[in-house]
Amino acid sequence: xxxxxxxxxxxxxxxxxxxxxxxxxxxxxxxxxxxxxxxxxxxxxxxxxxxxxxxxxxxxxxxxxxxxxxxxxxxxxxxxxxxxxxxxxxxxxxxxxxxxxxxxxxxxxxxxxxxxxxxxxxxxxxxxxxxxxxxxxxxxxxxxxxxxxxxxxxxxxxxxxxxxxxxxxxxxxxxxxxxxxxxxxxxxxx
Length: 190
Description:
It is built from 6 helices and 4 strands; from the N terminus they run βαααββαααβ. The chain is an alpha+beta fold. A 4-stranded mixed sheet has the order 1-2-3-4. Helix 1 (17-51) packs antiparallel against helix 2 (56-84). The protein is flat, with a radius of gyration of 25 Å.
């Protein structure tokens, strides 16, 4: 599960049509995963024996690929639904913490909000950082930490920029944008 600042997600339980639909989509995904796992098991069990004497194994391999494709489609449909219904599923009260876990009967739904530093195309962030680093070197201002953001290969240290406050990012021509993440866990079969 993705985490924001290592905080435990707030768990909420509400019963709305969106929650029922998300639960139904989790159930579909669970069914597709079970079909895929069974198909893979059959394929693996029979593969070595059949591949020497019969073309039947190719049909089993096709079945595995078919169920894998269906499982992928079920996951995409669930994630699209979670994104479309995020307000109803994760913030029915209007308050949205950065990390939320919603429980439904077939699994858990997770929402997290993180911030990623964007790499603008039209702004030379490296040149801007170097300019502020030079100002620090010449004692023309307190710009400590800017030189650390430049790697020896003369590229931007984007990992370091992730830790910078928004004001400093704006100074060099970039900013933090919110990045939403949706994940889920299926309940184990009884």
